[in-house]
Amino acid sequence: MGNDFNTLIVGAGYAGSIMAERLATELDQRILVIDRRDHIAGNAYDYHDEHGVLVHRYGPHIFHTNHMPVVDYLSRFTEWRPYEHRVVTRAKDDLLVPMPINRTTINMLYGLDLRTDDEVEAFYAERREPVELMKTSEDAVVAKVGRELYELFFRGYTRKQWQRDPSELHASVCARIPIRTNTDDRYFTDSFQQMPAEGYTRMFERMLDHPNIEVRLRTEFDDVRDDLTYDHLVYTGTIDGFFDHRYGELPYRSLEFELKNEPTPGGGLLQPVASVNEPDYDVPYTRTTEYRHMTGQVAESSSYHVEYPRSEGEPYYPIPNDETRALYKRYEALADALDDVTFVGRLARYQYLDMHQVVAQALTTYEKLATRLAAPA
Q: Most-buried pick from 31, 132, 327, 370 (CB within 10 A)?
């Protein structure tokens, strides 16, 4: 294709790949997608390990949504297999209980026999602490379930994950975790909960399989930005990195994954559900995830990840507090002043987004860009 393109896209994850596919398919643009990694699909990348188990390199990615336009779009590139994610938490005395907290959790923990939603609601109500101004994640939890459950399930896990006490984190971090009064033990309750039948990477391969799209991996933006000719740039990397950290670095939490495999004679499974959370602060990892729960594979061994939060490494989670939001706003003002650059995705907008939210954002961003490109000069 040479070095002349209508649009250069930095990043081959959800945001970049969707923008590439839409611009190539709908506007017949010539697209170059670059990524510094050696693979497409971003953090959703999956592969078959040496034992033949389909694993997610960057930790478990569970697709769930109530937004059917997102499903309709992705269904062009994949078939689906039903999967409803379940999580248990290791509580006191090594007891494994459902997470999010539900009626079964309460009954198992306290030796109760609560049978109705109203009874569980009354249990929570007795323990809740009034919070006048909901500012922190500690506020968000104790206002729902009280101090004891906060200490047991949330404080240690959150301190490990974020290297900050929940009292130092914005309320949104823990407020998104539901508290239930029924016995629903699914981690998500969305109407659509399924996994790409052949894996995420295969879905991305189909998305990028277009004659107008060229993909170059192991390619840093700074190494090629002056060697290419293009009319527009779609950027999905870190927004502070794009501006050479002019105002300082936006902080992120990272993760490290230790992949293990153990024999499962007869095709059994190692864990009762896909993920086991470890809220004890003295346990250095936050969870273990066994992938064959998600893939439905039957094998004589099972592969699982042990997940360790880290301060350094790949940027996974923006750290939401008043200071970081103010810093992002300064970078956002710089981005808004650039007519020939579109910023999209969780890193470019410093947002914690689930996969379906990134897809929706990318589709909306494409529509806005297409409208602008179609407008008379």
A: 31
Across 224-243, average pLDDT: 95
Cα(55)–Cα(148) distance, integer angstroms: 36
Contact between 294 and 82 (Cβ < 8 Å): no
Active-site residue identified among 287, 292, 346, 349: 287
Is 35 catalytic? The answer is: no
332 catalytic, yes or no? Answer: no
CA 249 to chain centre: 21
How far, in Å, CA of 56 to CA of 54, rounded?
A: 7
> From the candidates 180, 292, 346, 349, which is the catalytic residue?
180
Mean predicted confidence (pLDDT) in 27-37: 97
Query: What domains are defined for the chain?
Result: 4-40+208-251+319-374 (3.40.50.720), 102-175 (no CATH)
250-305 pLDDT tens trace: 999 999 999 999 999 999 999 999 999 999 999 999 999 999 999 999 999 999 99
Q: Which position among 76, 81, 115, 176 bears the catalytic label?
A: 176
For residue 132, the model assigns a pLDDT of 86
Catalytic residue among 138, 307, 328, 366: 307
Q: How many helices (H) and strands (E) does the chain have?
A: 14, 17
Q: Is 352 a catalytic residue?
A: yes
Whose CA is closest to 31, among 48, 52, 14, 17?
17
Tell me the torsion sign for CA atoms 87, 158, 347, 34: negative
